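testing teh design pipeline on a random one, pls ignore if ur not involved
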């Protein structure tokens, strides 16, 4: 493999796909210029099939648009749509207790509220990213206030409704891992917008404490070497729960966690312990997730190799493939081992030959195990402009960094 040419090709491809396909699709069909925010329930050609708005995606697209402005090109329309999503969140999606709804109508009328704190996490990264690119510290402070509310609900006993009855004490991987990314995105905004050194130091310490807390919990409770797996649900002290739920492995989710940890390891000057932890999780999860007969990352596995319960267990969703693309590039950046570029090539070839819709643009979300399309819609409450564009932006940046930082090694190999 000519590594320099390979990375250059993908760097250009990610940028082109994002600027000429993914972002135009959502700006044309998803952006609600009347009420603000974004629709995500779109048919294959972008036709609106449900005006219900996912609050997750108001924050997600608000983040993506600002993140792209900061890392791809300074397109003022992207900044406009980011603010549109944030304004919609603040005007319509926040309940009286500071928590956020899960679904709202087109005009923002509340429809549903759930116990999960993900709407708040995505809103927080949107606000911090918008503040980062505009230099407006007020948005970063809003993100911090929201982040501290998330922590209060997450860690105050009995404040947040339990997922199960008291007869089953457990904890989930999802919030633990997402708080790493949420805190790190806000931290970057604090570092670059706060001028008061004392306040900056105080907030960064609090954000670092959360990242450390999540990292320790992941390693202590969710990583189970006896199965070579990171489990989704464990007991309060990491106990293995020998039920279908407790045995569940979500390879895509674990791979996403791996690159979050690699990102933090890089921030800490390639902390060796974190790097090894992330690579272990990635390697295990790749082995569980890669579907040898058909290709692609499969949805769910059972750590005892018993039948998974979820009806979509052997399907191929869009987002695990995206996480594997990012993680393989990050792992190569961390190690320089070509096996990770080979893994990147493997997952990229399969993904790009099955998910992009060459006729109407954007990507399908749901494939059968063999890669055939299960349903052609481009979005719903859970799929929208987040995993695909985030992968393209992050991978574009990683390829550029690798090309810049490894020019000496390229010359040596040539």
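output:
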């Amino acid at each position: 493999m000519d590594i320099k040419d390979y990375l250059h090709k993908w760097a250009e491809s990610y940028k082109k796909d994002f600027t000429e396909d993914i972002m135009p699709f959502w700006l044309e069909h998803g952006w609600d210029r009347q009420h603000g925010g974004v629709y995500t329930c779109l048919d294959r050609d972008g036709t609106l099939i449900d005006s219900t708005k996912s609050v997750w995606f108001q924050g997600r697209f608000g983040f993506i648009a600002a993140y792209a402005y900061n890392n791809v090109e300074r397109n003022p329309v992207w900044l406009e749509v980011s603010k549109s999503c944030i304004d919609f969140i603040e005007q319509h999606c926040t309940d009286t207790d500071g928590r956020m709804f899960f679904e709202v109508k087109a005009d923002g009328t509340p429809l549903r509220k759930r116990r999960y704190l993900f709407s708040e996490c995505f809103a927080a990264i949107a606000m911090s990213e918008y503040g980062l690119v505009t230099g407006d510290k007020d948005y970063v402070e809003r993100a911090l206030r929201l982040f501290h509310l998330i922590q209060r609900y997450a860690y105050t006993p009995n404040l947040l409704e339990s997922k199960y009855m008291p007869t089953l004490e457990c904890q989930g991987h999802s919030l633990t891992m997402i708080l790493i990314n949420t805190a790190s995105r806000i931290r970057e905004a604090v570092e670059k917008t706060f001028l008061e050194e004392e306040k900056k130091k105080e907030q960064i310490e609090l954000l670092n404490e959360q990242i450390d807390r999540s990292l320790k919990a992941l390693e202590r409770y969710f990583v189970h070497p006896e199965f070579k797996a990171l489990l989704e649900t464990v007991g309060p002290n990491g106990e293995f729960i020998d039920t279908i739920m407790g045995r569940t492995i979500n390879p895509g989710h674990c791979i996403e966690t791996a690159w979050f940890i690699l990102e933090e390891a890089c921030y800490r000057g390639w902390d060796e312990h974190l790097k090894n932890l992330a690579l272990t999780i990635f390697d295990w999860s790749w082995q569980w997730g890669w579907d040898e007969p058909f290709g692609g990352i499969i949805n769910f596995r059972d750590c005892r190799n018993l039948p998974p319960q979820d009806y979509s267990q052997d399907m191929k969703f869009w987002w695990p493939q995206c996480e594997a693309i990012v993680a393989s590039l990050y792992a190569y950046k961390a190690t320089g081992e070509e096996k990770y570029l080979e893994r990147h090539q493997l997952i990229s070839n399969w993904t790009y030959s099955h998910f992009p819709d060459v006729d109407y643009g954007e990507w399908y979300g749901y494939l059968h195990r063999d890669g055939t399309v299960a349903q052609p819609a481009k979005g719903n409450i859970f799929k929208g402009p987040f995993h695909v564009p985030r992968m393209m932006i992050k991978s574009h940046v990683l390829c550029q960094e690798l090309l810049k930082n490894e020019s000496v090694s390229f010359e040596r190999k040539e």
